[in-house]
Write a structure and sequence with these properties.
With 209 residues, this protein is mainly α. 76% of the residues lie in helices and 0% in strands. α1 packs across α2, α1 crosses α4 and α10 packs antiparallel against α11. The radius of gyration is 20 Å and the shape is elongated. Keywords: DNA-binding. GO terms for molecular function: DNA binding. This is TetR family transcriptional regulator.
């Protein structure tokens, strides 16, 4: 006889199923019954664990953030390692972004953007994504600082501006990838574009002085 999953495991499985539904059908395609049918569980299972549709979507947002943060933590650890500063390899940021356009991570990317639109009007959904956004920005800023010339007293305001512009660019790349745009084909190519952005924003700031 197959053992029943424990409640936490069941919630994760239902959330993972809802993530696939979000990617395939958008927010309007997610309901308790559809999750039940796609997960091949008895009708009413999803509503037992998540009483309302809002509770289901919030749980899915938290699940996406947990998976994203796991990837981000690994990327940040790679980026901060001594080997990262000397090895002739793409940045952990570029590698992470390119991976987000393939396989299960692409499904998650699509689902994240679907929920991000809802989060504009839902503070609880927005809060579920906050840690991911903060850590993603920290990783981007670390890459930016490595691309800047060594300075005794680095311009922190400029670094923040460069990180912001790079983050907007990366968000656009990920959204385009979720829509099927594959014009950026490698992490190395993405790194070259990021380097150009950092240098361009720095040059623009220097001209204004």
């Amino acid at each position: 006889m197959r053992r029943k999953p424990n409640p936490d495991q069941r919630r994760r499985e239902l959330c993972d199923t809802a993530i696939r539904l979000l990617a395939d059908e958008g927010v309007k395609g997610v309901s308790h019954l559809k999750v039940d049918r796609k997960a091949d569980v008895p009708d009413g299972t999803t509503s037992f664990y998540f009483r309302t549709r809002s509770a289901l979507l919030q749980a899915v947002a938290i699940r996406i953030s947990e998976l994203d943060l796991k990837d981000l933590t690994a990327a940040a650890r790679t980026q901060s390692s001594p080997a990262a500063a000397t090895a002739d390899q793409p940045s952990a940021l570029a590698t992470l972004v390119m991976r987000s356009a393939r396989g299960a991570r692409l499904v998650r990317t699509k689902a994240r953007y679907e929920l991000a639109l809802q989060a504009v009007r839902d503070p609880l959904l927005d809060e579920a994504f906050r840690s991911y956004r903060d850590q993603f920005h920290a990783l981007i800023r670390d890459v930016v600082m490595q691309l800047r010339p060594a300075e005794d007293d680095p311009d922190q305001a400029l670094a923040d501006r460069q990180a912001y512009v790079v983050m907007m660019f990366i968000s656009g790349v990920m959204q385009a990838s979720a829509s099927g745009d594959r014009r950026i084909r490698s992490a190395e190519e993405l790194d070259a574009l990021i380097s150009g952005i950092v240098a361009g924003v720095g040059s623009s700031a220097a001209l204004r002085k």
